[in-house]
């Protein structure tokens, strides 16, 4: 059947083998925080805060680094292709000691680096500027309190040093994404002041020039959060301007805009002015609810734009969702596979024929071809991709996950 499908696509000018090659060389950066509900392992007992919220209480949350690594290994075994780990600073191995955010060092993450090396994957990193007493009032790098700003600047500077070591040791640039929750529940008096302080703090954070082969800086914008409904200092306009001016990567999170505003249409514009893009593929339901990513129109549109803009080499595809209402392994596998399937669908699009019709002003054929594309047998190619990587098909993966739940997750009390 697969050979016939290849011929069907070839008639429309689509090279299926080329699409499978690109799939195999396009990693998805797996966010560690889905495994334990964004808790981390500092052992400080701190509550999740700063506008982040996880709902659900499904059994088997990872409680230790080794449990999280075991869960991630299970996930990786069920994903076709080679991926990356996206780690937050709060997941370091602090040996039960109190290590504050401004004191973190490479040694606290060496275990993770070694684990990634053993898995044959790259690693991305994030300073954790949330769920901490010095972020309790919702302000960090833009705070009017210089001591607070200094603390978070030091944390971000330390994070970049760690990221550069990660990138150097693993031989793959580590994307360091800076997201701060800074904002106001109600109407601020001096928006400009907050934004000037954030820009000055970021300039200090990024002041040390690091080898881009080891570390890529990204900044993440947001529209609102819990506790920052009226004002977010790091808005899209702020960070797009900052990224353009300083040529950092810009992180677009699919849940960080108005509920009806997708990020697909932003990709071609952003990539005209910033060097690289980091995506947090997510799914907001009513708000930035961080639902598990699905194979839906929004996700398909994002990947379609990446392929149409020939932007995969300048884009780092990360995921950002945290759902504790279902098996967390399944959440990762469903979400990652949805992102991958959306990418495959985009790679199999007869885009040369679409482009030709559009350039000829033949919008009728363009529309019809877009509809024809939806009915093409892309899932046969997806199953071939799974087979070639010795991974089960979607439905088969569920039974493997259920067995893991019984053997491993259900005994974590
Ligand atoms: C844990 C992540 O840093 C966080 O989800 C951030 O990326 C975000 O999207 C906050 O809304
Ligand atoms: Mn995000």
Automatic annotation (TrEMBL):
Binds 1 Mn(2+) ion per subunit. Catalyzes the interconversion of L-rhamnose and L-rhamnulose. Belongs to the rhamnose isomerase family. Pathway: Carbohydrate degradation; L-rhamnose degradation; glycerone phosphate from L-rhamnose: step 1/3. HAMAP family: RhaA. Keywords: Cytoplasm, Isomerase, Manganese, Metal-binding, Rhamnose metabolism. The keyword Isomerase applies. It holds the Pfam family RhaA. It is found in: Cytoplasm. InterPro entries: L-rhamnose_isomerase, Rhamnose_isomerase, Xyl_isomerase-like_sf. The gene is rhaA. Its EC number is 5.3.1.14. GO terms for molecular function: L-rhamnose isomerase activity; manganese ion binding. This is L-rhamnose isomerase. It is an enzyme of class 5 (isomerase). Mn(2+) binds at residues 256, 288, 290. One of its GO terms (cellular component) is cytoplasm. Its cofactor is Mn(2+). GO terms for biological process: L-lyxose metabolic process; rhamnose catabolic process. Its main location: cytoplasm. It catalyses: L-rhamnopyranose = L-rhamnulose.
């Amino acid at each position: 059947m697969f050979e016939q499908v290849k011929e069907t696509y070839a008639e429309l000018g689509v090279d299926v083998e080329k699409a499978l090659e690109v799939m195999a060389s396009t990693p998805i950066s797996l966010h560690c925080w889905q495994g334990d509900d964004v808790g981390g392992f500092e052992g400080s007992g701190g509550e999740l805060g700063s506008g982040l919220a996880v709902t659900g209480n499904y059994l088997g949350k990872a409680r230790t680094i080794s449990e999280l690594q075991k869960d991630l290994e299970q996930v990786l075994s069920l994903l076709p292709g080679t991926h990356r780990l996206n780690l937050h600073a709060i997941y370091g191995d602090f040996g039960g000691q109190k290590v504050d955010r401004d004191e973190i060092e490479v040694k606290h993450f060496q275990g993770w680096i070694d684990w990634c090396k053993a898995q044959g994957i790259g690693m991305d990193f994030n300073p954790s500027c949330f769920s901490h007493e010095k972020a309790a009032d919702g302000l960090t790098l833009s705070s009017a309190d210089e001591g607070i700003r200094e603390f978070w600047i030091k944390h971000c500077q330390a994070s970049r040093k760690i990221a550069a070591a990660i990138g150097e040791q693993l031989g793959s640039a580590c994307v360091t994404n800076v997201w701060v929750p800074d904002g106001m529940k109600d109407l601020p008096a001096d928006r400009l002041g907050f934004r000037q302080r954030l820009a000055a703090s970021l300039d200090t954070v990024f002041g040390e020039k690091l080898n881009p082969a080891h570390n890529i800086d990204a900044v993440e914008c947001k529209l609102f959060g819990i506790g920052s409904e009226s004002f977010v200092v790091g808005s899209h306009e702020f960070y797009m301007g900052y990224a353009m001016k300083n040529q950092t990567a810009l992180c677009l999170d699919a849940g960080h805009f108005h509920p009806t505003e997708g990020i697909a249409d932003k990709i071609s514009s952003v990539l005209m002015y910033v060097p690289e893009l980091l995506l947090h593929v997510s799914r907001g339901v009513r708000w930035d609810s961080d639902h598990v990513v699905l194979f839906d129109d929004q996700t398909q549109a994002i990947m379609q734009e990446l392929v149409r803009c020939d932007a995969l080499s300048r884009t780092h595809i990360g995921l950002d969702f945290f759902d504790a209402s279902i098996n967390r392994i399944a959440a990762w596998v469903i979400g990652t596979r949805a992102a991958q399937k959306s990418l495959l669908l985009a790679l199999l699009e007869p885009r040369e024929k679409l482009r030709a019709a559009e350039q000829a002003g033949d919008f009728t054929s363009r529309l019809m071809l877009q509809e024809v594309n939806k009915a093409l047998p892309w899932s046969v190619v997806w199953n071939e991709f799974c087979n070639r990587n010795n991974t089960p098909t979607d439905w088969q993966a569920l039974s493997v996950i259920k067995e893991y739940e019984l053997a491993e997750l259900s005994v974590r009390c």
